[in-house]
Amino acid sequence: MRWTRADAQKIKASSDPNVAPGTNSLPTRLTMPEIPVDFPVMKDKAGKQVWVWDTWPLTDAHGNTYSFKGWNVIFSLTADPYAGYTFDDRHVNARISYWFRKASEPNKPWIYGGHVFGDRTPKTQAEWSGSARVFNNGQVKLFYTHLDFADRAKPDATIALSTGALRANANGVWLTGFTKTTPLLKPDGTYYQTNDQNPYFSFRDPYTFEDPAHPGKTFMVFEGNTAGKRGDYQCQRSDLGRSGENPAQVTSAGANYQMANIGLAVATNANLTKWKFLPPILSANCVNDQTERPQFVIKKVGNIYKYYLFTISHAFTYAAGLRGPDGVYGFVGNGIRSDFQPLNGGGLVLGNPTDLNLTSTDPLQNGRQFQAYSHYVMPGGLVESFIDNVEGVVAARWPRPSSCGSAPPPPPSTAPSAPTVCSATATSQPCTTSADTSADTSADPERR
Ligand code: FRU
Q1: In the Cβ-directed half-sphere of 58, how many Cα atoms lie within 13 Å?
Q2: Residue 74: exposed, middle, or buried by beta-carbon count in 10 A (0-12, 13-18, 19+)?
Q3: How far is the CA of 54 from the centre of ligand 1 (A)?
Q4: What's the CA gap between 208 and 143, in Å, rounded?
Q5: Torsion angle in degrees (nearest 10) through CA of 412, 159, 419, 200
Q6: In a mutational test of the pocket of ligand 1, which residue from 78, 374, 375, 387 has the highest number of ligand atoms less than 8 Å from its CB?
Q7: Residues 127, 289, 292, 436: which is the catalytic one?
Q8: Which of 27, 103, 118, 403 is 20 to 30 A from 258 (CA-CA)?
Q9: pTM of this structure
């Protein structure tokens, strides 16, 4: 299925051209509520803050959240705010941690369990997003993305599996195992772009599930890019839909640098240690460069199953000539491979408050345009995300490295360059603001 430019144009078309500058121009029903600036922060057992972003719950084969011996368990990408690197640099230092709390006490804070893999990942490598499936006796298969930053200009990504087990008593949850990692998939260069074809490629975020239409099989969706050498692609009429544009002009505007897809693979053994690529189920060629953390919510409606495919995307990864907010997007179809229809016309499900009449870099732009990201949709409709930047106030509340402003350069854009601010002290004003690459500048292939 193609998420076309005509589809995505509906997002801007649904935005109100007459709002007061810098307020929210998106339809209210598609806009996240404003996050209070005094939101609670997550801490470790010693009471020290932990940087937390992409988060996912423990689930069964059908994506249902699962409590183990009365405890709810979640997994997050985490980094250490006290280690001397910037918030942007958390991506190259990411470690998967787990948290738990009593299922009967959903309003209590999550209790930090620690790094799932201890400290076995070398410093030049990172653990990126994935999903956690529970099996009998508390066995957990953690699918995740292993990133190797030995060459920071050309990081290497592998979709991987590590297996362990949950243990619990009245006082809490702990993990055993997770001592080794099995590599599962590397991009093939035929369906899924490699780092040789494009150093800014995306290949990550595995989410596995069983499909009621194919009992006994396990599938995986993941974030990919359409294979081919960066910049070679010529935008097709089918990528445009009825956008009223000319494919050659769209290509020459640079839209062909935005080539996201949602990949599909199927397990070829019962242990889920062997996988085979299938063609992507969604392409966003010349529309957007990142369809991240894809997941399915499959719902029985009457006698048939409806397949809701959710993915997150950024304002700054839209192709030239298109606009949309940071948020979660969705598509609905009748199977894993389907003629998916974008939800709400253009695909936007829930965006940050944004004024699409202004560029992202306009000083008047809504200060909450990047307030949250990395949304995950639970089967019951609850959506969680991490708090990114609430008008700069978030950064002011974080502990900051004293070297603010002289930190090493951020990794290439395989890591999402989440706009963030950096304060020298806990109370000072931001001292740097990372460059925002809004859609209006994305025609320039080097600004992503
Ligand atoms: C989404 C994301 C994921 C990736 C992680 C890296 O926020 O870009 O695609 O796994 O962040 O930090």
Answers
A1: 26
A2: buried
A3: 7
A4: 8
A5: 30
A6: 374
A7: 292
A8: 27
A9: 0.89
* CA-based end-to-end distance of the chain: 24
Name the 3-class secondary structure at 220. Answer: strand
54 is catalytic: yes
Inform me whether the pLDDT recorded for 189 exceeds 60.
yes
pLDDT at position 356: 98
- Residue 161 Cα, ligand 1 centroid: separation in angstroms? 17
ipTM, 2 decimals?
A: 0.98
Span 60-88, pLDDT tens digits: 999 999 999 999 999 999 999 999 998 88
Comparing 245 with 443, the larger pLDDT belongs to 245
Closest-lying ligand 1 atom to the alpha carbon of residue 202 = 9
Token digits of residue 330: 């969705």
Beta bridge partners of 260: 225, 284
How big is the chain by its Cα radius of gyration, in Å?
21
Q: Has residue 440 got a pLDDT over 60?
A: no
Angle at the Cα of 340 from the Cα atoms of 337 and 345, rounded to 5 degrees: 170
Examine the residue annotation and report whether 292 is marked as an active-site residue of this protein: yes
Alpha-helical runs (H) found in 333-430: 393-397
List, as own/partner pairs, every contact residues 82-85 make where C-beta atoms lie below 8 angstroms and the sequence separation is at least 24, other chains included.
82/48, 82/399, 83/401, 84/401, 84/402, 84/403, 85/401, 85/407, 85/408
Average pLDDT of the segment spanning 148-155: 94
